[in-house]
Design goal:
This protein is mostly helical. It has a single domain, classed as Arp2/3 complex 21 kDa subunit ARPC3 (Orthogonal Bundle), CATH 1.10.1760.20. 79% of the residues lie in helices and 4% in strands. It has 9 helices and 2 strands, in the order αββαααααααα. It has a two-stranded antiparallel sheet with strand order 1-2. Helix 1 packs antiparallel against helix 2. The two termini are 19 Å apart.
């Protein structure tokens, strides 16, 4: 079911990415964290990996931006950060569950960390792998690449993390209660 949701979110406009002016707020990390909370860390990493593979394939056949054809053809940039969403969120959720009584707070913090993991890894790996090519690819002065990427963290990453931190517990907590009642 979560793989189908990820496929829909990556295929249908406005379901997985919310365009706000020139920016595109990614809400798919919330889906990965919901899967992680409900199914476990390994399954969350697999769901994240599916998103990464779709991102990798789309970079070749239906890119979401000109940048995608350059950076997301590298599976370390397109797949690895998505897998890490499930792992980081899962580990955080398990650790927080033992310390925090309110499940919604544990889920919220795990969602924020998962979303930030995606943002920081994608942008950090873009910097690591493409900084030498940045002047040609992005028409950016090399000295401005890092501030540009940090700006993207502020304009995209922070709103995405806030979205995940608010919406994920609203969905995951009631679903986890329903699942517990049925088992």
């Amino acid at each position: 079911m979560f793989i189908a949701i990820i496929i829909l979110q990556t295929s249908i406009p406005l379901i997985g990415y919310i365009p706000i002016g020139p920016l595109s707020i990614t809400i798919i990390p919330a889906t990965v964290v919901i899967a992680t909370v409900l199914l476990g860390t390994v399954d969350g990493a697999i769901i994240g990996g599916v998103w990464g593979v779709i991102t990798f394939i789309r970079a070749y056949i239906w890119p979401t931006s000109p940048l995608a054809t350059i950076v997301f053809v590298n599976p370390i940039v397109s797949v690895f950060p998505r897998i890490m969403i499930g792992l980081v969120a899962g580990w955080a959720y398990m650790a927080l569950q033992k310390r925090i009584k309110r499940q919604s707070l544990s889920v919220s913090i795990a969602a924020i960390l998962g979303s930030l993991t995606n943002t920081i890894l994608v942008l950090g790996l873009i910097y690591v792998f493409y900084k030498a090519k940045a002047p040609q690819l992005y028409q950016i002065n090399m000295e401005k690449l890092l501030p540009y990427l940090i700006g993207v963290v502020g304009t995209n990453g922070i709103p995405e993390a806030i979205f995940s931190g608010v919406v994920t517990p609203l969905i995951a907590v009631p679903l986890s209660r329903v699942i517990k009642r049925r088992t």
